[in-house]
Design brief:
With 294 residues, the chain is mainly alpha-helical. 65% of the residues lie in helices and 6% in strands. It has a two-stranded antiparallel sheet with strand order 1-2. A two-stranded antiparallel ribbon has the order 3-4. A hairpin with a 6-residue loop joins strand 1 (220-223) and strand 2. The protein starts with 17 loop residues before the first helix and ends in a 5-residue tail after the last helix.
Amino acid sequence: AFETPTRNRQSQMTTHSPRDENDPLAPARDRSLTAAAWALADEGRLKEAEAEFWKLMERPPHPDHFRDYGRFLERVGQLDQATILFQKAIDLAERHHDLPALTDAYGSLGHVLRIQGDLAGAEALYRKALAIDEKLGCLEGIAIHYGNLGLVLSARGDLAGAEEMHRKGLAIDEKLGRAEGIANHYGNLANVLKTKGDLAGADDMWRRSVAINDRLKPPFRLTCVKCRQPMRFPLAAFTGKESVNVRCPNPACKAVWTVTKKPAKTKEDREAAEARAIQYGDLGNTLYAKRDLV
């Protein structure tokens, strides 16, 4: 599975608008807009999410704005438009020497190029992003770029190189204790080992990946009706309860909402179930290849 660095990694770029220099709350408002847009996108409310991203486009230019809107457009399949925004993010980050924003934009554009079959272009961008995160000492980013390079090398048929990249990324994520990254590396290693004919090794990797993903439960997401601030809380909060009270994290709002259980699965549960089904299916294919039909 492909990964991108965390959305909220702090950019180094300062505001270059006279209006914002007199408004110390501007960066916080930008982060709030971004969070609200992604919350709406995660809920499947794509038109509302895009409207929030457009509000960012009306703000003073910032590479993170172009990158986030680009990732949204990529998610909905508008790859050409996403490419334009990622390139704008790269140009602006390079102009202002904003290294965290630059490595994120390189990785995002690299993903689009990989989808479009430009493996050489994708690899070049991933390696640029890797070099920056090595310079910054960002271990999470390094692990992610190793994994993405592994996907490119695997697609080019360099299975030895792909396995090396995934194992390097796995070692870092194990050191960090980053469960999602570990599960992704296990799954990617399973694909490489299966292609190499190592069915026992692939079986082991798939089982490890599935076990971790079964433990990772997505948080329940909702949006404050009053101020539209995204709110999250663990599904475990519902244990033994039919409803829970959730306070809006926005200090200017602090509204309290009662959330009641619904019998139907949430969108996040369905997506998690679909992801597990894919993994179980891949595990089943490996077992079938081994003729382990029990």
